[in-house]
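In line with agreed milestones, work has continued on tokenised descriptions of protein folds. One protein thus recorded appears below exactly as we store it:

>
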Amino acid sequence: MLITLLRWGTPESPRWLLRQGRFAEAHAIVHRYFGPHVLLGDEVATATHKHIKTLFSSRYWRRTAFNSVFFVCLVIPWFVIYTWLPTIAQTIGLEDALTASLMLNALLIVGALLGLVLTHLLAHRRFLLGSFLLLTATLVVMACLPSGSSLTLLLFVLFSTTISAVSNLVGILPAESFPTDIRSLGVGFATAMSRLGAAVSTGLLPWVLAQWGMQATLLLLAAVLLVGFVVTWLWAPETKALPLVAAGNVGGANEHSVSV
């Protein structure tokens, strides 16, 4: 209810208004919230069918696959580890679940703030690729260490901070990957896939832990993160410093370039 009240009065998307031909309203919103010095470039309308099938057309399926898979591959380790934190904490040698939870919450705040800085400084594609590699390596090393190792705690700190930092991109990349006509479809589909993946993986965790143990569980989560790295390498566009229209333009020149 509080969030609903805080969101009351949120202005409509200026680009959506442009697509509806409501130019005066769009420019009035930009003028009010960003100032008279900011001009909203008129987006050229394209013939796009507003149907979910469009996401899987030859033009957009790579963007759809990338955003869905990278979102899922980040969310699965996040939900699995933090939903079952007390059990996992004891398994890796953190006996006090309350202390582990408090430490985790502090790390997530630090990671989120660090992520804001890194998102501004680094190319989004490079930030995501590097984070996937670091997270994968962290879980692999954790799986190979004996229970209770002091290094395990340091790696858990690194993992928690990194995954919190890179999670800033889940609110940026999907929105930048699609044109205005299907942006809500693309973002909604990627988010739905992430929630489905989180629900299934969280439900399966107790069985995996009971059957295979913590080492195998961490290695499976590392494999999920590695899949995210591969998909990002193959299909992620570089959208940093691009206007929203250009970022959503599929097939643009050098769209996979990595720059800072």
Summary: The chain has two domains: 11-45, 55-245. The chain has a mean pLDDT of 84.
